[in-house]
Amino acid sequence: MSGKKPSFITGANAKIQAGGITMAYAQDVSYNVTVTTIPIETMGRYEVVSNEPVAFFVDGTLSVIRYSSVAAGMNGASAHGNGIGNWKFATPSGTNASQMMNPADMLASQTWDLNIYQKYDNNGSVDSQDVINLKDCRLTRKGGAINKRGVLVEQFSFNAILQDDDSYTAANSGDTDLTS
pTM value? Predict the structure, then answer.
């Protein structure tokens, strides 16, 4: 059947952007949204009356196949490599991702958004639809792994403030100082 558009989001049709930078060699992204609750108890009952939410946490990981400036001839590769020192986020001050991992620059770093898009063919041109948004992220961990027959893969952990997707928009619960 011709003219069918993809209905599933897969690694083959997903585009990952971190802070406005398309992560050409991103291998995977995962995220978790956790709502912490506490039980409300009353006298005279053994069971709790309700479980009330008290906190909202978003965290995740991102893996990137690492290359250096020597590989600049690769299709879509930056001439300087793809280490986090070359990730200049689209923030008002142009935060560099390495600031979040450098003790001397941590306090000057800014948050960034992680977006996952679904690419699809729109009558011969490639378009993308926004699917997942992780807002106000900060890197919290960096690691890497390489083996004799593999490629260097760097893993990054991050925390975010909110997560929403194409089916709902997450909003802050109270103070307006967190709105973007």
Answer: 0.81
Distance CA 95, CA 113 (A): 12
Q: Does 89 map to a domain?
A: yes
List the CATH number of the domain containing 78: 2.40.30
Element (H, E) at 142: strand 125-145
pLDDT tens, the chain, 180 aa long: 455 555 688 877 788 888 888 887 788 899 999 999 999 999 999 999 999 999 999 999 999 988 887 766 665 556 677 888 888 887 777 778 888 888 998 888 889 999 999 888 778 788 888 899 999 999 999 999 999 999 999 999 999 999 999 898 988 887 666 555
Rounded CA separation 97/154 (Å):
14
Are the C-beta atoms of residues 61 and 155 closer than 8 Å to each other?
yes
Residue range(s) defining the domain that contains residue 80:
14-169
Give the C-alpha separation, 58 to 161, whole Å: 6
Domain count, the chain: 1
- Is residue 66 included in any domain, yes or no? yes
Q: Is residue 5 part of a domain?
A: no
- Identify whether the C-beta of residue 93 lies closer than 8 Å to the C-beta of residue 110: yes
Distance CA 48, CA 93 (A): 49
